[in-house]
Amino acid sequence: MIDETEPRRPLRRRRPPAPIRRGCVVKVRFSEAERERVASVAAERRMMVAMYVAAAALSEATLATETDDVGIRVTALRELMRAHRQLRGACTNLNQIAHCANVGGAAGIDIAYLEATAEELVAAARAVHAATRDLSR
């Protein structure tokens, strides 16, 4: 029979399984200031400290540079994607202007200027695409 006078122990919630099962343990020593800095950066990126340290170490090993930070690549990719969206919008606007010029609905449009602008947009799009591809590796 169960004794109702004893307080019940709360049930422990199980954590959802980690996406990557890591069986090896590596111990890292930080000074107090370093630990606080790593913890604050991990919190900013909404990562657990161990996850952030692993990502930073793997990023460093992959890129083989001393100046790379986990956030630098992410920020650069976000900026490149933003540039891609702006270029896509500019190309859409240019296409609409060219369509009006071809139909004859827009008098006074300088076709040479449209061609030069199109060439600049194509060059910028190629540069953004190449930079995005290089960062994604």
Task: Provide an overview of this structure.
The protein is mostly helical and 137 residues long. 64% of the residues lie in helices and 0% in strands. It is built from 4 helices and no strands. Helix 1 crosses helix 2 and helix 3 packs antiparallel against helix 4. The longest helix has 34 residues. The radius of gyration is 27 Å and the shape is elongated. The N and C termini lie far apart (63 Å). About 4% of the residues have low confidence.
Helix count? 4
Distance between the termini: 63 Å
Encode the helix/strand succession as letters. HHHH
Q: What value does the Rg take, in angstroms? A: 27 Å
Structural class: mainly alpha
How much of the sequence lies in strands comes to under 5%
Stretches with pLDDT under 50, minimum 5 residues:
63-67
Tell me, what's the shape?
A: elongated
Largest sheet: none
The counted number of beta strands is 0
The overall pLDDT, averaged over residues, is: 77
Query: Share of helix among residues?
Result: 55-70%
Short structural summary:
By secondary structure, the chain is an all-alpha fold. Helix content is 64%, strand content 0%.
Question: How do the strands and helices of this protein lay out in sequence?
Answer:
Layout: H1 32-44, H2 49-63, H3 70-103, H4 111-136
Helix pairs in contact: 1-2, 3-4
Features:
137 residues; mainly alpha; 4 helices
